[in-house]
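Exercise: predict the structure of this protein bound to flavin-adenine dinucleotide.
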Amino acid sequence: MPDVDILVVGAGPAGAVAAWQAKLAAPELDVVLLERDRAVGAPVRCAEGVGDAGLREFANPDGADWVSRRITDVILESPDDTQVVLANSGIGWILDRTRFDAYLAAQAAAAGAAVLVGAEATAMSRNGDERWHVRVTERGREDLYRARIVIGADGVETMVGRWAGLDTRVPARDMESCAQYVLQGIDFNPNAIYLQFSNAIAPGGYAWIFPKGVGIANVGLGLVALKTNGHNARQYLDDWVARRFPSGVRTGYTVGGVIVHTTIKKTYADGVLVAGDAAHMINPLSGGGINNAMKAGRLAGCTAAAALREHDTTERRLASYHKAWMEVLGEDHLKYYRLKQALEHMDDAFLNSLARTVNKVVPEKRTLGRVLTHAMIKHPLLIPVVARFFV
Ligand SMILES: Cc1cc2nc3c(=O)[nH]c(=O)nc-3n(C[C@H](O)[C@H](O)[C@H](O)COP(=O)(O)OP(=O)(O)OC[C@H]3O[C@@H](n4cnc5c(N)ncnc54)[C@H](O)[C@@H]3O)c2cc1C
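Solution:
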C-alpha cells in the first residue's frame, strides 16, 4: 500500500499547480499527481482563452510553445451582428492546452512530484484511520494509496468532493452545456476574440470565436439547457456556424460542461481540499476557469504543505484554505453571480440597442473604461457584460 503525504487527483491546471506548489513549499513531502486520461492535457475541452496578468502569475507566455495566439482585441457582437470593437482591451492569450497542461505537470515533476497518467482514483474512504485510503486503477491494476491529504482537482465531474461528504451539486440553471468546433479556412481578425450575445444563438450563454492562428479558430457556444427550444448545444452551434462560416472546415469537435455557479459552501474536510472546477471556482459570468484553477491549486498546495508540517490535517486547520480562496476570488464570484442573474433579463432587442449606443463613442476612444462609463449612464446592465472578459 503506497504511503504518500499528498495525493492530487486530476492533472488539469488546478491539480498540476497544487502538486507543483506543494513540493516547492515543502520539498520533503511525497506528492503524487494522478491523471485518469492517457495524456495530460488531452483531449482538450476548452476554448483556451486566458487573461495575461493571471497567466503570468504561473508561467511566462512570451515565446512559449504552449501558446497558440496572442490576443490584442475584443469584439463584442449583438444578436443582429452589430460589432463593438473595444479599443485597448488588454492582452490575452489563446493557449494550446495539450501543451500547456503538460507544461504545468512537468513543473510539478521537476519540483519532485510523481506524475502518473492513465491512473484513475475510483473510491476513497477513511475507515477510522487518520489517512485516506484511495483506490487507484492503473493499466488494469488496482492499488490502494494511503494519503495524509487528498487534493480533489478532478474537474466538473468531481467525485473526490462527494467521497469526502462535501456538497458539490450544481443547480440545473447554473450548468452550461458547451459545444465547439475547431474551424479551418475561415475569415476573421486573428488578433481578436469575438463574443456574441443572443438568446436566439446561445440562450443563457454566448457564442465565441477564439483564434488559434490565421484562418483557424475555436468556434463554439455555451447555453443553459433549461432556456433552449429543445435543441442541444451542438444543434445551436451548427445553426450559428452554417450562417457565419458556411465553408469552414470542421477539424475538431468537443463538448463539455461549465459550472456557472459560485464556490461550493465548504471546500475542505478532514484531510481533503478541493480546487478548481471541482469546487465550482469558475467565473460565473465568463465561464473562464483556467487562471482561477491555478490560483486555487496554488492555495491548496501551499495550505496542504503547511498543514502537514504542522502535523495537523484536521478540517479546522484546512479551513484557512477556504477563507483565503474567498478573499482572492470567491467573494468576487458571488458578486458576478448576482450580476449574471440580473443580465438574464436582457432580451435581444435590448442587446441590439445597447450595441448601437456604445458605437456612438468614437472608435479610438472606445476603451473599456470609456465604454463602461458610457454604458453606466445609459445602460447600467452592460457593465458586467464587458467587465467579465480577461478576468
Ligand atoms: C467548451 C469549454 C470551453 C472553455 N473555455 C474556457 C476558456 O476559454 N478560458 C477559460 O479560462 N476556461 C474555459 N473553460 C473552463 C476550463 O476548461 C476549466 O475551468 C479548467 O480546465 C479547470 O481546470 P481544473 O484543473 O479545475 O479541471 P480540469 O481541467 O477539468 O482537469 C481535471 C482533470 O482531472 C482528471 N480526472 C477527473 N477525475 C479523475 C479521477 N477520478 N482520477 C484521476 N484523474 C481524474 C480529468 O481527466 C482532468 O484531466 C472552458 C470549458 C469548456 C467545457
